């Protein structure tokens, strides 16, 4: 998907741009990308660890500075706070402490954000571990401030804390509000449609036919069983040796289990073929997306011709989705069309930079012919086509598209 060909001669950008480099290739150091990925993964793991620790942390209000800091170790011991579990110490105004309302750290984090930079835990660590009194006057602390400690409770209290938080959330209605917010965020029609398209990539008529076939199979089996059972009860038909005994629940449990197992395996086979049917679609989309990313990389390096080639190739691969994957439903086809439209728009923008007016107009025409519902993308295509047509001298068409 990457190209190493230099741009053709005689083509340059506008006067205000720098001349593009002589070629477009991979970075000189192949380990640079691996190091960046490792650093990002390490930062993500560190963030997850800190979030997990913060979810366990609580705050403990010890009292006024003048009464607590001279006997800080004893004050922590009286409230059952282990010295090794202390993760932050702050001296806050009494009005802020009165407005906290919850001992959970995550609940009061937003309220304490203006004071987080004034953490005194490092300054107090030596005196606390040595058991000495803290000279708060030498630290220029206000005697009326209140000492608040962030600490991690022992693991044996984790279950009690979770139960207490859950009860408080249910009692205050926070759980219901959180469930409503999550439903409004994730259960939107567009997201549900995308999920359904991912689970079933084929045409929806095929899914309907499959459901009707299963319903007819099960219904005919149940109808046949009821007819045979009615004849047996009427005495017009005698049961065969080895048939399950008549009589409601026992017959329902023992009769037809082989058919049910076969039906279940048949449905699993259909699901397996559905997942397998996604393979060519995923391959084409991955190739198109990779070409689009390569075009963006070339564009950042100032390689206009290389970027245009990559965007055009990405649009061709996205267009192949409708040809090679004709069995797709409308959701999957719409995703391919959206990617194709974005590539055409980007190619048109690059063509405008290189004064390739005819190519820019053709790319915009292709994009507008897709009939996408994205009004912003359509507006960009109309504008860029108008600019290309004006440069070609077609003023009438330009005015129409503007």
Verbal overview:
The longest helix is centred in the C-terminal third of the chain and has 44 residues, at 257-300. The model is unreliable at 1-27 and 246-255 (pLDDT under 50). This protein has 402 residues and is mostly helical. α14 packs parallel to α16 and α15 runs antiparallel to α16 (375-392). It has a three-stranded antiparallel β-sheet. Among the domains are: 58-152, no CATH class; 199-255; 277-401, Serine Threonine Protein Phosphatase 5, Tetratricopeptide repeat, CATH 1.25.40. It has 17 helices and three strands. The two termini are 35 Å apart.
Summary tags:
mainly alpha; 65% helix; disordered N terminus; single chain
CATH superfamily of the domain at 277-401: Tetratricopeptide repeat domain
- Rg, rounded, reads 35 Å
Which topology of the domain at 277-401 does CATH recognise?
Serine Threonine Protein Phosphatase 5, Tetratricopeptide repeat
User: In which order are the strands of the major sheet placed?
Assistant: 1-3-2
Kindly state the percentage of residues in helix. Answer: 55-70%
Number of strands: 3
Distance between the termini: 35 Å
User: What is the 3D form?
Assistant: flat
Major sheet details: 3 strands, antiparallel
Give the SSE order as H and E letters: HEHHEHHHEHHHHHHHHHHH
Architecture of the domain at 277-401, according to CATH? Alpha Horseshoe
The assigned structural class equals mainly alpha
Contiguous low-pLDDT stretches (5 residues minimum) are 1-27, 246-255
Strand content: under 5%
Mean pLDDT: 76
Short description:
The chain is mainly alpha-helical and 402 residues long. It contains 17 helices and three strands. Strands 1-3-2 form a three-stranded antiparallel β-sheet.
